[in-house]
Write a structure and sequence with these properties.
alpha+beta; C8orf32 fold; 4-stranded antiparallel β-sheet; 3-stranded antiparallel β-sheet; 31% helix; globular
């Protein structure tokens, strides 16, 4: 998974520099998040690609968009993790062939605040499938997605896949750390 985070790629370096003077801390994290969430289109049927490819192509699947977010925030020296949930979805708007499937998001720590961010669904995809996010204006995690008052995802299992300090953490250690 770490190989998808090609933060030395010139496309990534240039994108990071665009945010150099765009706020501080949580404000900067949120700006980057909203930019990737809404300017990179969600396409659930794509093959996995590197962060730089997602940025250049302008679209990505759940993993692609969140690897891009992780790569950008990690390049800006934010402490972040890529987290995988095993989820189920019973909502008609989000049918998958598998009963359980992986869903990824980012957890970012800044000072004493931990923020969960899932940048998968762009605003047009959310409108097309009537997906709403019932967030607290700080967290935008996958457990905040609803369709007609029904949670979009039911979480079965949670693992940390990439930790910016350790680069890889297995699920057992991740559970011991409370994630």
């Amino acid at each position: 998974m770490i190989e998808l985070c090609d933060k030395q790629n010139q496309v990534i370096v240039n994108y990071v520099s665009e945010f150099q003077n765009s706020g501080y801390g949580i404000q900067k994290i949120k700006r980057v998040f909203l930019n990737i969430k809404n300017k990179i289109n969600y396409d659930p049927d794509l093959e996995t690609q590197n962060a730089s490819e997602t940025l250049v192509m302008g679209y990505g699947n759940n993993l692609d968009k969140n690897v891009l977010l992780y790569t950008i925030l990690e390049s800006m020296c934010f402490k972040c993790r890529l987290i995988r949930l095993m989820v189920r979805s019973d909502c008609p708007a989000f049918k998958r062939n598998q009963r359980e499937f992986p869903w990824y998001f980012i957890s970012v720590e800044f000072l004493d605040t931990v923020v969960n961010l899932d940048c998968s669904f762009d605003k047009f995809y959310m409108m097309a499938f009537n997906i709403i996010s019932k967030n607290n204006n700080i967290d935008y995690g996958p457990e905040d997605y609803f369709v007609e008052d029904r949670r979009l995802f039911r979480v079965i299992k949670r693992d940390i896949i990439i930790d910016c300090e350790e680069n890889y953490v297995n699920g057992k250690l991740a559970m011991a750390n409370g994630f």
